[in-house]
Amino acid sequence: IDSIAKSQGPSLAMRMNLHLASVKVPTKAVANRIVSILKDLRERRNMMETATARHQLPEWMMFTSLPVLPPDLRLRSPNPENVEEFPDDMNIMYKDILSAGRLFQVALAERAPAGLLRYRKFMLQMAVDCLIDNGRINPAKTKTSGDPLESVAKRLKGKQGRMRKNMLGKRVDYSARTVIVVEPKLKLDECGLPFEIAKEMYMPFLMRELKEKCGQTVSLWATSQGGERERLLEWFDDQSEETQYELLRQAMGDRKIILNRAPTLHRLSMQAFKPTLIPGKALKIHPLVCSPFNADFDGDTMTIHLVLSKEAQKEAEDLMLPSRNLNSPASGDPVIGPTQDMVLGLYYMSSVTGPLDGPLKVIDSVQELEELTAECSAGEVSHLQEVHVPRAILQQIAPEDENVADGPDREDPVRTTAGRLQFFMMLHTGKVYPMRSNPELLDRLDAAPLVEP
Q1: Sign of CA dihedral 361, 364, 368, 369
Q2: Buried b vs exposed e over 422-443: b needs ≥16 C-beta within 10 Å?
Q3: Which of 167, 180, 273, 440 has the fewest CB neighbours in a 10 Å radius?
Q4: % pLDDT > 90, the chain
Q5: Which domains does the chain have, with CATH numbers?
Q6: What digits encode the pLDDT tens for the residues 356-403?
């Protein structure tokens, strides 16, 4: 640069020095802003790469048709003073969308400049965003009074939304409430529903089932002795307990129920379950589903809702079962993992706190190993019982586990305890739900720490 400046004379050197002096050094705030932009670009690139790897097309995230709320749900109560209806905020936002779309079509038809087209397209996008969630727009679109317009998201979420205020804040049909207790023998997607609660919730389906079984006979009784419904229930109550349970199971079919625990703070506070009939009055759930509900068993109660329509049943089965919600919607971290009693039980079962119980037991086959773990589970054998197991038998049970064959003494049998063998069998043979019966869940369990750091 100096040689060029000398050849061009002092005027060029002076201009270059003035130019260098005019360059502003970025401040810390500007540098942080640049880092934030680059981080956002990296996250967007990672999102697109993930979508491409899963064969998810970006156009799936675009609206091609905008749902419109029925007119009956977009009406306000009449104003008693002016005898006029209050304009609903949804009507205002739908009107803005139609107006923005019409202006965009006119700009296209008239072959407007590219800048005007981009502006019209931007205004249409803003109108749609306002309808979905006006709270995310800065500044939010307001009414003539200055209050922000009430969007779809505002009507659904929060304490004053449809779910928490209208559905969960009052008593509704086909619902119940009871105390929850733990039942680790259930599958992850199952819950134990008390017989008396199920009988009331599924009453219309039970009546239909009873009519098909004995409708003609009961109809003859009902002509002279009360109504048909009362006679059907009287006949049902006269049956044996096994018959009652079987009839109610047939009436329930494969209909799911939704469990909710207040406060409903996030999506996983409401999940669908497959009910199984149990005696008593308490609702039984699997301990692994407590974390999403933030539930424990010191007297917590949960609300039960019966899913009625076929479309809602399909949606509950595909989207709301616990096995479909293994990760947190907010962070993506696993929400299913052993905690509290389970961690203590696993530690006690696999710990060696003193001398091993004898005499030494040598395992010669997989069948003997299964019998030993069954006896340990039943309490007939101590979890500290010393056991020697050949590595070949362990490899038959867990061929995918490379650690079984590792070590300097590969030919020697493994010296362990009955409790540790029981835990080994639980993981690799599915003796306890929901381990090997759901490989995807097992991956989540492996990712979740046993004890929070």
Answers
A1: positive
A2: bbbbbbbbebbbbbbebeebbe
A3: 440
A4: 29
A5: 2-53 (no CATH), 71-156 (no CATH), 175-324 (2.40.40.20), 341-447 (no CATH)
A6: 777 788 888 888 888 888 888 888 888 888 888 888 888 777 776 666
